[in-house]
Design brief:
Structural class: alpha/beta
CATH topology of the largest domain: Quinone Oxidoreductase, Chain A, domain 1
Helix content: 25-40%
Largest sheet: 7 strands, mixed
Shape: globular
CATH superfamily of the largest domain: Medium-chain alcohol dehydrogenases, catalytic domain
CATH architecture of the largest domain: Alpha-Beta Complex
CATH class of the largest domain: Alpha Beta
Radius of gyration: 21 Å
Bound molecules: NADP nicotinamide-adenine-dinucleotide phosphate
Oligomer: single chain
Length: about 350
């Protein structure tokens, strides 16, 4: 195959203000770089779409530095080595890393996101979803922080998304009663059907507080929160003694200009002697292997199902990311850049 010459890239052109829009990025065609000794050229196969990318675009302190204006938009990726001067990487190797929104990237094969080699035969879609950062987030957030016990009631918001759908199914495997909260009847039907949640609440059309009271009359033991805002408040109202509230994310506020006022029901943590704790999945990097083994076992045994929502083409990366904030994705949102 002739060496590729053109590298389509999306650059961060303007920082978002309020609701994210495609105006934040600019598409350009750059030359495919030549390699120095120790480097390899990776063709991007899939890009992961993650709500946290909205945060990376802001110029404010976070768990990672912001993406600079004029830089390639940061994104988690899986790709294939197409040329190599790196001793640890061979042409054809599958690697996971942080290529960003571009067709080709230069890597060295080292560091936490420096393109780690993945075993041959790995399914790239599975690697980017249930075995990827969102599956790992569900695993550690639910099991380490939520510490569910058989017979307990677990509530998950953002339940039909990449993280929530896996968190809820792990809770079911742990022997819990699982209630998912998601937007729309189709997502709720998927949760109680394919994903075998015990119940689902459509927050766009139902009264979350009333439905929770009916479905969890004795209260909620574990709440895995992906959305924050009013849904967090509704669940806090109904936590049980010694409940664990896992703060995974708060997507309902990611496009707000000012942070919304805090939950009104925090005093319930005092009354119920409950715990609320946040986490970032990368802190668990040393244990990713353990989690991936368990998740793979559950997938192979049919205990966990996972949705993958694929948008085709690097040109559509912005549109794909926006789908998360409009709730258009079922399961993991990906961009397929190359076959
Ligand atoms: N702590 C960590 O290390 C870590 C790691 C990964 C992800 N996260 C967090 O986990 C959460 C889920 O991420 P994901 O990648 O799995 O995304 P996802 O759940 O696959 O997609 C986002 C979903 O959020 C829901 N949503 C969007 N706007 C909303 C709103 N205003 N109110 C309520 N729900 C809304 C939509 O579902 P509906 O149709 O149901 O509204 C959408 O499908 C995010 O908060 C993310 O930041 C945290």
């Amino acid at each position: 195959m002739p060496r590729p010459t053109v590298n389509k890239q999306w650059l961060l052109a303007a920082r978002p203000h309020g609701m994210l829009s495609e105006a934040s990025w600019q598409l350009r065609e750059a030359p495919v770089p030549q390699l120095a000794p120790g480097e390899a050229l990776v063709e991007t196969l899939y890009l992961s779409c993650d709500p946290t990318q909205r945060g990376w675009m802001e110029d404010r302190p976070s768990y990672m530095p912001p993406v600079g204006l004029g830089e390639v938009m940061r994104a988690v990726s899986v790709g294939r080595v197409v040329e190599s001067r790196a001793p640890s990487l061979e042409v054809g190797d599958l690697v996971e890393g942080m290529a960003g929104w571009q067709q080709y990237s230069v890597v060295t094969g080292g560091g936490p996101f420096g393109a780690a080699k993945v075993p041959a035969g790995t399914d790239p879609q599975q690697l980017m979803s249930v075995l990827g950062l969102t599956g790992l987030t569900a695993y550690f957030g639910l099991l380490d922080l939520g510490a569910p016990k058989a017979g307990e009631t677990v509530v998950v918001s953002g339940a039909a998304g990449a993280t929530g759908s896996i968190a809820g199914q792990i809770a079911r495997i742990a022997g819990c009663k699982v209630i998912g909260i998601a937007g729309g009847p189709d997502k709720c039907a998927w949760l109680t059907g394919e994903a075998r949640f015990d119940a689902a609440i459509d927050y766009k059309h139902e009264d979350v507080r009333a439905r929770l009271r009916a479905l969890a009359p004795h209260g909620v033991d574990v709440y895995f929160d992906n959305v924050g805002g009013d849904i967090l408040d509704a669940v806090l109202e109904q936590i049980r003694m010694k409940a664990r509230v896992v703060l995974c994310g708060g997507i309902s506020a990611y496009n707000e200009i000012e942070p919304p006022p805090g939950p009104r029901n925090l005093m319930n943590l005092v009354i119920q002697r409950a715990r609320m704790e946040g986490f970032i999945v990368i802190d668990y990097a040393a244990r990713f292997g353990e989690a991936r083994d368990a998740l793979k076992r559950w997938v192979d045994a049919g205990e966990i199902v996972y949705g993958v929502d694929v948008v085709q083409g690097i040109e559509r990366a912005p549109e794909a990311l926006l789908r998360l904030f409009y709730g258009k994705n079922l399961g993991k949102q990906l961009v397929r850049v190359a076959e």
